[in-house]
């Protein structure tokens, strides 16, 4: 079957929640995921711990059992896989949506890397983890610079610069330092981010205070070479020896998917997509948004905890329209 009431673009936690809600409402649907199941979570750091307690990450009324107060990445992967199995969700994996088009009868044609589908409604739940926010400095494209972090062992006995002072940067700095990396943080603001997990913040502050981890506050990188990093600090330019740079400068949604469908974005730096907060329908009829993509560049506004409700809101709106 290639015709559906709903095509859901993105098989993250919120795309899966949308699939469950559609199924429960008796609507036909397909979830199209460009990578593996919950691809973003799969690509998170190996030892990552969620800040949410397990019940706040639950979807489809399936209990999330964790051995810890805060679940790990591995537990979350296991959980969402079991949910997919239990609800027998119609997910097509490794199938990237490459283009979308509104047909004359106002339905949509959705082309993926493997197939062409038709759907009456589209839900965009493409997340934010695919495109990093760049530093825009010379040398950023050297192989030693990365925006994604997997595992600390790789950096043992290496001179590592970590850019940023939020959760990801702090996790990287602490983990790699504990595996014998020589860590220097470059931080734009004057302090460690206030949103950093309450158990990690004092840890990093104390490591910086005692000098175990070096930090340049109110500073930014101006250039990267094979062997050095140059930093603009309040005391002038400083150049330090360096092996690797971990630029944890955040990520941004893929706006092309939204723009191709004609979803309006605000003119400012946030690029806020236009949608009705009660139905999640965009300015384009029958095109809905769900999950972290709803915030535009404000990628901290929506997360699993507070956006899983989008699934029921959208289904209710679609069912309401069709009068079923
Ligand atoms: C380190 C870290 C820790 C976090 N901890 C928490 C936490 O404790 N609690 C919490 O609530 N949130 C947390 N978050 C945020 C949370 O993970 C995201 O908000 C969540 O993943 C959003 O789910 P989503 O389904 O909207 O997007 P995603 O999980 O990003 O899923 C989007 C999916 O769309 C797919 N996709 C993109 N483009 C296409 C395309 N063209 N075709 C097909 N598929 C496509 C992607 O491959 C991806 O699988 C954390 C995030 C990070 C980075």
What do these coordinates show?
InterPro entries: Bdr, FAD/NAD-bd_sf, Ferredoxin-NADP_redctase_2. The protein is an alpha/beta fold and 324 residues long. It folds into two domains: 2-131 and 251-322, 3-Layer(bba) Sandwich (FAD/NAD(P)-binding domain); 134-247, 3-Layer(bba) Sandwich (FAD/NAD(P)-binding domain), CATH 3.50.50. It has helices spanning 13-24, 39-42, 73-86, 167-178, 201-209, 255-260, 304-307, 310-322, and strands at 3-9, 29-32, 91-92, 97-102, 108-112, 116-124, 131-132, 145-146, 159-163, 182-186, 214-216, 220-224, 228-233, 236-241, 244-247, 251-252, 287-289. The strands form four sheets. Strands 1, 2, 3, 4, 5, 6 and 17 form a seven-stranded mixed beta sheet that branches. Helix 1 (13-24) runs parallel beside helix 8. The protein starts with a strand and ends with a helix.
């Amino acid at each position: 079957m290639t015709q559906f009431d709903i095509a859901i673009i993105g098989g993250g936690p919120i795309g899966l929640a949308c699939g469950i809600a559609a199924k429960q409402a008796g609507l036909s649907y397909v979830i199209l995921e460009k990578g593996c199941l919950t691809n973003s979570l799969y690509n998170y750091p190996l030892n990552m711990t969620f800040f949410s307690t397990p019940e706040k990450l639950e979807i489809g009324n399936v209990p999330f059992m964790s051995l810890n107060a805060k679940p790990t990445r591995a537990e979350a992967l296991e959980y969402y896989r079991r949910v997919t199995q239990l609800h027998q969700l119609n997910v097509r994996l490794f199938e990237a949506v490459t283009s979308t088009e509104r047909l004359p009868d106002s339905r949509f044609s959705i082309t993926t890397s493997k197939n062409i589908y038709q759907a009456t409604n589209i839900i965009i739940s493409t997340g934010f983890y695919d495109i990093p926010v760049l530093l825009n400095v010379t040398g950023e494209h050297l192989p030693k610079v990365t925006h994604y972090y997997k595992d600390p062992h790789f950096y043992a006995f290496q001179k590592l610069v970590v850019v940023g002072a939020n959760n990801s940067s702090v996790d990287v700095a602490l983990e790699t330092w504990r595996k014998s990396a020589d860590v220097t943080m470059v931080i734009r603001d004057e302090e460690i981010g206030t949103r950093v997990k309450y158990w990690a913040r004092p840890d990093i502050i104390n490591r910086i205070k005692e000098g175990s981890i070096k930090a340049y506050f109110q500073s930014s990188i101006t250039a990267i070479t094979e062997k050095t990093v140059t930093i603009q600090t309040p005391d002038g330019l400083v150049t330090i020896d360096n092996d690797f740079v971990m630029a944890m400068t955040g990520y941004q949604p893929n706006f092309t998917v939204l723009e191709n469908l004609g979803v309006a974005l605000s003119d400012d730096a946030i690029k806020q997509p236009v949608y009705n907060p009660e139905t999640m329908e965009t300015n384009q009829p029958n095109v809905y948004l769900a999950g972290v993509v709803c915030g535009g560049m404000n990628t901290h506004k929506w997360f699993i905890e507070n956006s899983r409700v989008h699934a029921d809101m959208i289904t209710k709106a679609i069912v309401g329209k069709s009068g079923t």
